[in-house]
Amino acid sequence: MQDTNVHIEKTEILSDNWYTLKKVTFTLHKKDGTKEEQSREAYDRGNGAVILLYNKNTNEVVLTRQFRLPTFINGNPTGMMIEACAGLLDNDNPEDCIRRETEEETGYKISHVEKIFEAYMSPGSVTEILHFFIAEYSTEMKITEGGGLADEGENIEVMEIPFDDALIMIDSGEIKDAKTIMLLQYLRLKNVL
User: Fold this and answer.
1) Do 12 and 26 touch, CB atoms closer than 8 A?
2) How does pLDDT run across 80-95, given as a tens digit for each residue?
3) Which one, of 48, 82, 76, lies nearest residue 63 by Cα?
4) What Rg, from alpha-carbon coordinates, does the chain have?
């Protein structure tokens, strides 16, 4: 473990509307013994969890499709993204969060989840740590249609896709979401399906 060579000088809140955008001024103590003052912006949206549901009997995975404004602004003509089920932790632990999100978004009530790793998804500008999970599902676990919560503005399409088709969708560019690609590749590397 490396000693901290950073001293926070000042933190300003630039926006606290949906999430919090901060401007942080800090002094960095460099390896050569010099100090340098820098200023960066960091977006704090809280930590999250993501899960990929898979069915060994049908060789399928559950993904979602929904509109994502940032992708639309950055050139995605429809703004629609195909993703693994995910959500913010809020005040829950990661396991409870992902069980709740799975039921809300996909309609599947799962009990056993397997945490496979944690990752910073965009460490240059976003504080979020994402907790990655996988879980096996079956048709008997479907208790609702899913689709998310209307009062949160969610309008989520639930998709059951053959695993091999999902991998082809990565190659074709139809799936461009990093967390989803990571989970699909994890199943592929571990020979889960």
Assistant:
1) no
2) 999 999 999 988 999 9
3) 82
4) 19
Contacts of 4 (CB under 8 A, 6+ apart): none
Distance CA 40, CA 168 (A): 38
Per DSSP, helices labelled H in the chain are 69-73, 94-106, 163-172, 178-189
> Per-10-residue mean pLDDT for the chain, 193 residues long?
79 93 94 92 95 97 95 95 95 94 95 96 94 97 82 83 98 97 97 87
Question: Which two tokens mark 187?
Answer: 């199943």
Residue spans of alpha helices (H) in 122-177: 163-172
CB 93 within 8 A of CB 49: no
- 92 token code pair: 């829950």
Which residues are 162's β-sheet partners?
60
In sequence order, what are the residues at sequence separation of 6 or more whose Cβ sits closer than 8 angstroms to the Cβ of residue 175?
Answer: 63, 82, 166, 169, 181, 184
